[in-house]
UniProtKB/TrEMBL annotation:
InterPro entries: HECT_dom (IPR000569), Hect_E3_ubiquitin_ligase (IPR035983), RCC1-like_dom (IPR058923), RCC1/BLIP-II (IPR009091), Reg_chr_condens (IPR000408), Ub-ligase/GTPase-reg (IPR051709). One of its GO terms (molecular function) is ubiquitin-protein transferase activity. Residues 375-403 are annotated as: Disordered. This is Probable E3 ubiquitin-protein ligase HERC4. The gene is LOC110977497.
Length: 1153
């Protein structure tokens, strides 16, 4: 391994001075007589020592060897070297001999190192507390001292700025100390200018940090998914946040969120970032062109370095005012910016800068694919220099004498601060163009910082003369202050070339991975957990940051986290966590750590989207998926409470993430909190525990409510019925909850838990019972109101009927119904309904009204009325926008349907589900909604969306206009203004489909539906109605067609001499089983008045069969009001069959029996 250096060396920071005997090995005069090393020079001190890392301060350098020993050189005026040896030669920091050091970092004049065991030591300038030792005095610390406050943490990274530092622990915590003049510690609320002790940055709690970096007075962190937060000084825009105001708190750099940033480096007042694809962005001060943009204008927003585009940069490094970039594929190092240096001789300060990245030449192998680079061309004549930093422009360079001379130089003159373009060059009068003139280039080397010619060029071996396999290859670059280092290894060296886009395990925060799961899985089941296992569990499962960095999607899919991309591989997490099922000791301790340390620390307002990932991840843990009863009231409820306490913005993100999950992952959340709630209900608690019990149940319900709301907004990823908790009907007094809920004014919160506030957990049966209860209460109130009014009118003999009595003529049922309803007051519909058919003896105990609803709806919904359009393919109907009927007829239909529901009667209403969605104020405009009405046309629309070629769409010749046919007339209707002239294309086809569906289901029938809904909601509308899901409401209105004939037979009751094994009953059931489905449905109509099954199932029909005397010549008789069947005592099966089949074919009309 070889190490090369260049840049400022006035304080010995390059470590080149090994004594006067070393002159013979130099290329020309002793370089130490100069203030700079302008071309890469080997640091021979480390020729036989394996350097792994270098850190550069302003005037000193620190070298870390592979064996963990540390050497330093350079200025020691503040004790930053940690030893008393001469600074021009690297000297070992012997005070660290008892430590194995793994990382080193430098501030301006102080040094910080991290040991293998995660402890941190520091020394040097402590005037601003930058050593973090917390001592009273701020004198220089000349020997390494331990930062005791961090000794309880395992630190994996440390970065140093000018006079401040930031440390990242394995547990994902961030600590800062030192100078806080510009808010560079990011503590916001702390106004102290200096902090001598490490303080945690709590505002970034939960953010999974991957990198930390510090500049002169600004700081940055980069998350595992490329999110960047910066804070501190911003006078040059070095925070990249589109302004120049300082920030005392971490501020999100939004513009780079989608760029997959993997690494960040900071100079004094500028910043450079490296992306996953090898792109480089820079921002901040450009006074010395350190941004590489050929401009001296500061950049307050990140800007990509154009000259490096097309190349995959793998390493970047920043000095005070310069930047380095390494391209691994070509083996080339590029530099741009300035080395600012004030020589000890008192000569004036020189400032020279590079307008664009220039290749740094050195004795290392480079790829042959790129022959010409920016730095391979030397202009013959320099134009007059522009002004830079207020200095006067120098004179023109004289013309280079020959092309051959230029060719001879082009491989040797470029260093990291070369400026070969004269317009960017400025210099003092003392360094005039005449002083730089020469008659021959063959015996001189160009010092590009002074544009002087120096001896020694002829000794340089041209690139390409050696076998590339024998030459060194670049392993790593380092920079800081005004100097640089480069590590190179021979081809056969096994050490990997550093890639800043990758991070070693030692530098990464801890995560849940296969290795940890292996360790936990191997834990003995019947013994206590070892100290190592407990330590691993505590470190990770107490840290939100560690969990948020775990099980991320591969191939960079987790970058750019957003509402659409949570970045977590939940399937991988489930697979690994499943290995811990049954490991009760591990799960018990894991639950304890989560409940005691993690969950109570979760902030309601996380710093970033990435800090929310654990809310998805932990639901895959066995702690949640298979919780023991004692964990119901602790970790599961605690976690639910934290989830419910998240602020609105964070809650919306989680809801959006849920909407992207597969049903299996959502179902796990649902199942966990359903089980948790039932576990709470089933446990016996004392009176003192009941408040906690109610609180726990309410938290579970709130989590389920969030999940249900998301589910409803996303076309029901999970079926609505999975939210049912059927045990509630048996274990909880739902009626008492309902009555309390009714008495409470709408919008007020209940101090206790009321399940009516969470209707999604109530099944259809429970809701139907509540609707019946509500209807009975309203009927009772209506009757009591009539009784009060009758008491007031008793002397006038004008008694008000407590029932809504409709006298109906069968022969003109629609007009008769309209007339009867019009003569009653609007509130009379709340009375119990009684129907009387003109000329018939039947008394309405429920059966007459069943037939009334069946007949009137069959008539009014028929095609001859023209109020509704019929769709034969699905046997459904929809409003006819071209109906000639008056709007009041649609109101009448709504009232009739409302009366049927209000009076608990199942009716035949062949509307699609879209109607019930609209009645419940849910959107009904999707293609799926339309498919239930017209599946054939919906299929055509789907085909349009599936077409892959744009030309195929155009060839359909569709426009945003449709033809509507009504009573033989065809009319063209535009779906949007000018739609007839707007063709459907690949780009607007989704808009066309949406517009068409919305036209059919909504806009074209807006008036007809409005009158229907007014009539319907006048009867049945209210708070109870809104408890229903659209499908539940539909099933309740029209009943069910899921026939369980075995259940039907099992639930029949017998009276008199009949019993299940009676000979007549055995014959009856034999005949019934032999019937076709249509005949069985007719039997239901004959017996109950409808062929639909109540939503609660056949068990609720309560059929009764009783014997009647009179002989076998009589027919069976049905009492539809009571679901009662009078069945003669037949002794012959054939006779029974004939009589029964004849009876069920004649189901209309009522008489007294």
């Amino acid at each position: 391994m070889r190490m090369y250096c260049w840049g400022a060396t006035c304080h010995g920071q390059l470590g080149l001075d090994k004594g006067p005997t070393d002159d013979a090995e130099t290329d020309g005069p002793n370089d130490q007589s100069f203030d700079l090393i302008s071309t890469p020079r080997e640091v021979r001190f480390f020729r036989r020592r394996h350097v792994s890392e270098v850190a550069c301060g302003l005037q000193h350098s620190v070298f870390l060897l592979r064996d963990g020993t540390v050497y330093t050189c350079g200025s020691n005026d503040k004790g930053q070297l940690g030893h008393d040896m001469p600074g021009r030669t690297p000297g070992q920091v012997t005070a660290l001999e008892t430590y194995v050091i793994r990382r080193v970092a430098c501030g301006d004049a102080f040094t910080v190192v991290t040991a293998e065991n995660g402890t941190v030591l520091s020394w040097g300038d402590d005037s601003c507390g930058q050593c973090g030792l917390g001592t009273e005095g701020r004198e220089c610390k000349r020997r390494p001292r331990l930062l005791k406050q961090l000794s309880v943490h395992h630190v994996v990274q440390v970065a140093c700025g000018g006079a401040h530092s930031i440390a990242l622990t394995r547990g994902g915590k961030l600590f800062v100390w030192g100078d806080n003049t510009y808010g560079q510690l990011g503590l916001g609320h702390i106004l102290q200018k200096c902090l001598e002790r490490p303080n945690e940055i709590t505002s970034l709690h939960g953010l999974p940090v991957m990198r930390v970096a510090c500049g002169g007075a600004h700081s940055f962190v980069v998350s595992v998914s490329g999110t960047i937060f910066g804070w501190g000084r911003n006078h040059c825009g070095q925070l990249g946040i589109n302004d120049t105001e300082d920030r005392s708190q971490p501020t999100l750099l939004r513009s780079l969120r989608s760029q997959k940033v993997r690494y960040i480096a900071c100079g004094m007042n500028h910043t450079a970032v490296l992306t996953a694809d090898g792109g480089v962005f820079t921002f901040g001060s450009a006074a010395d062109r350190q941004l590489g943009h050929s401009s001296v204008s500061n950049e307050i927003n990140p800007r990509k370095v154009f000259e490096l585009m097309g190349s995959e940069v793998t390493q970047i490094a920043c000095g005070s005012c310069h930047t380095l970039a390494f391209i691994r594929t070509s083996g080339r190092v590029f530099s741009f910016g300035l080395l600012t240096h004030e020589p000890p001789t008192g000569r004036p300060v020189y400032r020279r800068s590079l307008s664009a990245p220039i290749k740094v030449n050195g004795p290392w192998a480079e790829g042959e694919s790129i022959r010409d680079t920016i730095g391979d061309k030397v202009p013959k004549r320099h134009e007059k220099a522009e002004e830079s930093s207020g200095e006067p422009a120098g004179e023109e360079f004289k013309k280079v004498q020959s092309e051959n001379d230029v060719a001879e130089l082009d491989k040797s003159i470029f260093d990291m601060n070369s400026d070969m373009l004269a317009p960017e060059t400025t210099y003092r009068d003392e360094d005039s163009a005449e002083d730089m003139e020469t008659d021959s280039f063959t015996n001189y080397e160009v010092d590009t910082n002074f544009h002087r010619l120096r001896r020694g060029l002829s000794k340089r071996t041209p690139v390409g003369t050696k076998d590339e396999t024998e030459r060194m290859r670049v392993r790593a670059i380092f920079s800081g202050g005004n100097h640089c280092f480069l590590l190179a290894t021979c081809a056969k060296d096994s050490s990997e070339v550093v890639d800043h886009r990758e991070i070693s395990v030692d530098d990464h925060i801890a995560t849940v991975d296969a290795i940890l799961i292996d360790t936990l899985e191997a834990a003995p089941p019947d013994e206590g957990l070892s100290e190592a296992v407990m330590s691993s569990v505590e470190e990770i499962f107490s840290s939100a940051a560690c969990l948020n960095a775990s099980f991320l999607k591969g191939d960079g899919a987790h970058f750019g986290s957003s509402r659409q991309n949570h970045g977590v591989d939940l399937d991988a997490a489930r697979e690994q966590f499943s290995r811990l099922a049954g490991k009760e000791a591990v799960l018990r301790y894991m639950a304890e750590i989560l409940g005691v340390y993690l969950i109570p620390s979760l902030p309601p307002s996380p710093p970033d989207i990435e800090a929310l990932r654990l809310y998805l991840l932990l639901m895959e843990s066995p702690v949640f998926t298979d919780p023991s009863p004692e964990r119901y009231g602790t970790v599961v409820v605690q976690f639910g409470e934290a989830l419910c306490n998240i602020t609105s913005a964070g809650s919306k993100v989680i809801s959006q993430w849920w909407s992207t999950l597969q049903p299996r992952h959502l179902n796990r959340i649902l199942t966990t909190y359903k089980q948790c709630m039932m576990g709470q209900l089933s446990r016996k608690r004392s009176a003192a525990d009941r408040p906690m019990l109610r609180r726990n149940i309410k938290i579970c319900l709130e989590v389920l409510s969030k999940l249900c709301k998301m589910n409803n907004e996303n076309n029901e990823i999970l079926p609505y019925y999975l939210f049912y908790i059927k045990e509630l009907t048996d274990n909880v007094g739902i009626r008492d909850h309902f009555l309390e809920w009714l008495q409470r004014r709408s919008g007020l919160e209940c101090a206790d838990v009321n399940f009516c506030d969470y209707p999604f957990v109530l099944d259809a049966n429970a809701k139907t019972q509540l609707l019946k209860e509500d209807a009975m209460l309203q009927m009772q109130n209506a009757i009591e109101d009539v009784q009060r009014r009758n008491l007031q009118r008793i002397l006038f003999f004008d008694i008000i009927n407590p029932y809504l009595v409709l006298t109906i003529n069968r022969n003109n049922i629609v007009q008769s119904t309209l007339t009867e309803l019009s003569r009653h007051g609007s509130m009379d519909v709340k009375k119990p309904l009684k129907v009387v058919f003109v000329g018939e003896e039947g008394v309405d105990a429920g059966g007459v009204q069943k037939e009334f609803f069946m007949l009137v709806l069959r008539e009014i919904l028929s095609a001859k009325f023209g109020m509704f359009r019929h769709y034969p393919g699905t046997e459904t109907i929809w409003f006819n926008s071209k109906s000639f009927e008056d709007s009041e007829m649609f109101r009448l239909v709504g009232i009739i349907v409302g009366l049927a529901i209000y009076n608990l009667t199942i009716i035949s209403l062949p509307f699609p589900l879209a109607l019930y969605k609209k009645l419940l104020n849910r959107p009904a405009k999707s293609l799926e909604d339309f498919k239930q009405l017209d599946p054939e046309f919906a299929s055509n629309l789907q085909h349009l969306l599936d077409i892959e070629e744009p030309q195929d769409v155009l060839e359909l010749y569709l426009t945003f206009a449709v033809t509507v046919e009504s009573f033989g007339e065809v009319e063209t209707v535009e779906l949007k203004p000018g739609g007839a002239d707007l063709s459907v294309t690949m780009e607007n086809r989704q808009d066309y489909v949406d517009s068409y569906v919305d036209f059919v289901l909504n806009t074209s029938v807006e008036q007809q539906y409005r009158f229907f809904s007014e009539g319907f909601l006048h009867v049945i509308g209210g708070r109870v109605f809104n408890l229903f899901h659209p499908q539940e409401l539909m099933d309740m209105v029209i009943g069910d067609e899921h026939y369980d004939w075995d259940e039907f037979e099992k639930n029949v009751s017998y009276k008199g001499e009949y019993y299940r094994q009676h000979p007549t009953m055995r014959m009856f059931w034999d005949v019934f089983r032999e019937m076709s489905l249509q005949q069985k449905k007719k039997f239901l109509v004959f017996l109950t008045g409808t062929d639909r099954v109540p939503i609660q199932g056949m068990k609720t029909l309560h059929i009764i069969i009783q014997p009647v005397k009179g002989g076998e010549d009589f027919f069976p008789v049905a009492h539809t009001c009571f679901n009662l069947l009078d069945l003669p005592v037949y002794t012959d099966k054939a006779r029974l069959r004939d009589k029964l089949l004849m009876a069920i074919e004649n189901t209309e009309g009522f008489t007294l029996v």
